[in-house]
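User: Round two. Same drill as before: sequence, then structure, for each protein.

Assistant: Same drill it is. First protein:
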Amino acid sequence: MSFELILVIITAITGVVVYVDRTVWRPKRERSVTTEKEPLLVEYSRSLFPVFLIVLVLRSFVIEPFRIPSGSMYPTLEIGDFIVVNKFAYGIKLPVTQTKILPIGEPKRGDVVVFKYPKDPDVDYIKRVVGLPGDEITYIGRTVFINGKPAKQTFLGEYQGEGSGKVMNGASLMQENLGDASHLILSDKEKTSQDMNTVVVPEGYYFMMGDNRDHSNDSRFWGFVPEKNLKGKAFGIWMNWDDGIQFDRIGKGIE
């Protein structure tokens, strides 16, 4: 059972208790000849319901925090980064069912997106949008081809990471352009390029890749991500804890 579903259930239960107390139980207590103490269940529900409701609304419709557990998005995101995700960037969805009730925007190439892993929806993944619906995507020799055109890559030097990122020291730090979007990626020449023949992204789906191209489990291996699985667009880092706090990453934007 997901945390989101648990939060919805707890919010609903405490809300029902507060409502029933206000409309049924409290009037009975007030009419009673003897003074009746407010039940403990009602007391706790009245105190906690507003808290649960605010958390539910924020997590479902505004922002949601996530922690980065792996290095698949180096150098953009590091292990231990705590990020915030814009939940309404791609439309407002109902919690649990993820039914879109208000379309607002669509993913663009280069967006860093949190989504439910298609093979196991209880697991959240974070990758970069590379292919949009209708795009032809090819990956050969560590180069992405979109509709037959290679994404421009510029070598910037050798990557020098900190903390757990040191494991990628010496990898090639590249700047990649996906149309108007520009971002950094890593290329590990000691690994075999995970080449992929041309695929066409179906309507309503997206092709995702990690920025740490040779160390990422992404759409090259398990396919496309349906629009309904998108949870939101990552836009900022509010904390990093990886063998201690890295203060230089706090408040950093995600590009």
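Second protein:
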Amino acid sequence: MILGENGEKMSKSRGNVINPDDIINEFGADTMRLYEMFIGDFEKAAPWSTSSIKGCKRFLDRTYALLEIVNETKGYSPELEASMHRLIKKVSDDIEALKCNTAIAAMMAMINEFYAKGSVTKDELKTFLLLLNPFAPHITEEIWQTCGFKGMITDQSWPSYDESKTQLNEIELPIQVNGKVRATMKVNKGIHAFEAIEMAKKLGNIQPLIVGKQLVKEIYIPDKIINFVVK
């Protein structure tokens, strides 16, 4: 269930109803679709966030802008080959588990890697579009056609990955609450911030310390530590 921005159930009497038509007119159908799957776990209620939907729009704009840095190189670049295989595995597994929010978060992290590198190969873009297509079908089809890929994107096979290229070194990540270590958890080195934080929130030693309290800040230092600031 999607709640109003004030965290209450949407109701005309409360004046907190969001009209989907207004959102589509302002941000586009793909952004609306993407945000609804990014907002949180399907099993849990989540409040509407205008700033978050703007973030989804920026992500799709950055996806379209990949056309400006795509090159004709075949295959995956050596720098991003492992990341691409991990992304395919992550998105595939998350879709099966109905964890669309973490699948989208992984793609958001991947696009940062493209821009950090300054280029994207045609095969990297092709795979990225195939993974994103279930969440944003219109823009991915448009980019697909612009790139000159054969057929329609919806008729293509799902990308495959090499399990041996998805392996990461496992590390033990300390979890703090208000600066004090309360738990640790084993994660893959290089884990995405969103995924690490969501995993930490579900730990038995952490949940009682943050549930029902105001979560002021979530601090994640990659491969080093997570700190929840609550009051």
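The chain has a mean pLDDT of 87.

User: Perfect.
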